[in-house]
Amino acid sequence: MGISEVEARFEPTLAQGLVLVLLVFVAGFALAPVGRLVGLGNVELLEYLVSGVAAPAAVLWLGVKLTERPWRDALPFRRVAVPAIAWFLVAQAGATALVLGLVLRFAPLSPPPESLVRAILRGGPIAVVVGAPVVEELLCRGLLLSGLLRTHGRWVAILGSAVLFAGLHMNPWQAPVALLLGVLYAYAAVMTRSLWLPIFGHMFNNCSVLFGGGVVEVSFGVDGPGREWLLMAVGASVLLFGAYRLGQVPQSAASEDVLMQAAPKGVVEVERAAMR
After folding, report:
1. Contact (Cβ atoms closer than 8 angstroms) between residue 56 and residue 198
2. Spatial CA neighbour of 144 closest among 8, 273, 21
3. Is residue 260 part of a domain?
4. Which of 2, 17, 68, 185 is most exposed, with the fewest beta carbons within 10 Å of its own?
């Protein structure tokens, strides 16, 4: 396959990624009347399914079609080494503690609107814990991240995809957390050349939001006026340590970088050297 053929494919840049994110909102507004017409007694669930699952799924389908690549090439799923899974879980635990500390510290200053909380709670486990994480990871850590890795450097791709992921949660209560987790999940996708860990982490996070009200009260057994700062400090330390160790896990020789296959040769060599 020649380089001219590669360049003819659609590989999202940051600007094009932003357009795709905006298309998610356009698709959500366009499909919203369908959800309202269906009814079924749970308007919040249908609206969540439309805006959080159906709309990004439609944009994902369009984006993959534009790449002119098979789905399995555009959206990499490769077997992940056990040590990588273990260190990712450490990083995810740190991120959870950090997010909890942030919520305890800042949420009381500006509580999220009741409509947002109700939409999440009534979205239900299928939509919130399964549907939205899978579709959003395929879009942000699959299509967008793979495109950014071909058109930009590794860290620009990681940070850029995280910013676009935060843009999908366009409200001040979710966007900062989405940005933080987006960096972790993009980093995990690049280090493992796979979407399995980001999808699992995203599911775990949404599950903790949906069912973790008691965790916020218990706060991991930490109490006192400085508990949120302690949680943030410990969480950030554990997150960084887990992410560092995840990056040290050697990849098997058979784990060719699907995220960057078919990229121009010079880009591939630069990115492979950076990952060593």
Report:
1. no
2. 21
3. no
4. 2
Which residue type, as a one-letter code, is found at position 61? W
State which residues form the domain around 12: 3-251
Nearest C-alpha neighbor of 187 from the set 231, 233, 141 = 141
Which residue has 């400090």 as its token pair? 233
Q: Bigger pLDDT: 12 or 2?
A: 12
The total number of structural domains in the chain stands at: 1
pLDDT for position 272: 46
Cβ atoms within 10 A of the Cβ of 108, count? 9
Length of the chain: 276
* pLDDT bracket for residue 213 (50, 70, 90): low
Residue 244 is encoded by which pair of tokens? 């560092």
Given a contact cutoff of 8 angstroms between Cβ atoms, the answer to whether 91 and 249 are in contact is no
How far is it, in rounded angstroms, from Cα 152 to Cα 166?
19
Cβ atoms within 10 Å, residue 109: 6
**Which residue, chain included where needed, has tokens 């600007």?**
15
Decide if 181 is inside a domain: yes
In order of 41, 48, 121, 140, 165, the CA distances from 45 in angstroms are 9, 5, 9, 23, 22
What DSSP state is assigned to residue 132? Answer: H
Res. 257: pLDDT tops 80: no
CB 145 within 8 A of CB 190: yes
When pLDDT is averaged across residues 141-160 and rounded to a whole number, the result is: 93
Q: Are 238 and 225 in contact (CB under 8 A)?
A: no
The whole-angstrom separation of Cα 88 and Cα 184 is: 9
Q: Is residue 266 situated within a structural domain? A: no
Residue 46 is predicted with a pLDDT of: 72
Q: Position of tokens 């909890």?
A: 100
Question: What are 11's two structure tokens?
Answer: 């590989």
Tell me, yes or no, whether 272 lies in a domain.
Answer: no
